[in-house]
Amino acid sequence: MRLCRFDDDKVGLIRGDQVFDATAALVHLPALNWPVPLGDHLIANLDAMRPALETAADESRPVSIESVALMSPVANPGKIIGAPVNYHKHHEEAVADSEINLGREIKTIDTYGLFMKANSSLVGPSEGVALRFTDRRNDHEVELAMVIGQGGSDISRADAMDHVAAYAIGLDMTVRGTEDRSLRKGVDSYSVLGPWLVTADEIANPDNLDLEILVNEETRQKSNTRNMIFDCARLIEYASAFMTLYPGDIIMTGTPEGVGPVVPGDTMHAWVEGVGRMSVPVRAHKS
Ligand code: MN
Q1: How many angstroms is it from 211 CA to the middle of ligand 1?
Q2: Chain segment 179-198, per-residue pLDDT in tens
Q3: Which protein residues have their CB within 5 A of the ion that is ligand 1?
Q4: Domain range list for the chain
Q5: What percentage of the chain reaches a pLDDT higher than 90?
Q6: How far is the CA of 183 from the centre of ligand 1 (A)?
């Protein structure tokens, strides 16, 4: 199943190149009272909701994907986890590029572990990226994003992939500088998730997916998730050794080599095999 959030918080199913409105199914979500549980309410109930979503979609009149505004398909993630330097060739370029390392020693995920991106940084492709600090370098990072379904703590490697509800494309936008990663990657709109969720049953092996990003017409990054240092299961095992994962938590799995700057007016075109492609405009936060 391919699930999107579009226009004014409608939920849709993607079939072919069309969007089928499944918003009517949301009446079947259990009622919530304060304090609401951590995580995303729709993702937490996704398995139970699937028949109602499919039925609602069947009864709707489809529209073309191009005619809707795609928002982040996860509305309320419990957290957004990032994977720093999780590709060896990205490590090599970061070591070689003084505009990335700013004189610091660069290690890999084995040393750094993981980092957090602010939930408030999350947008969908139609919202675009609003660059701040345009006097500095702002870089794209295309990544495979995992969305947690069943939560858990101390998840074993063997069980890890059973905890993934879906996959999407993640853009882990970054302003270069000396501040901590969580701040430089936590800017409003610096986490793009889209174009929709592809449920885990449709992705046979997330550790063997081609991914790429173009800026305007120029290919910048082109790799395969098999080149990750921590694979998908290891990322879940590792993260859950530190913190409980909740339904709707997003894990951005790290970026391959080829990171580079974007400026206002650019358009990023990202693609992940088996997931889809999305175009994301770049503008200035202040002009
Ligand atoms: Mn990243």
Answers
A1: 14
A2: 999 999 999 999 999 999 99
A3: 141, 172, 255
A4: 2-71, 80-284
A5: 99
A6: 13
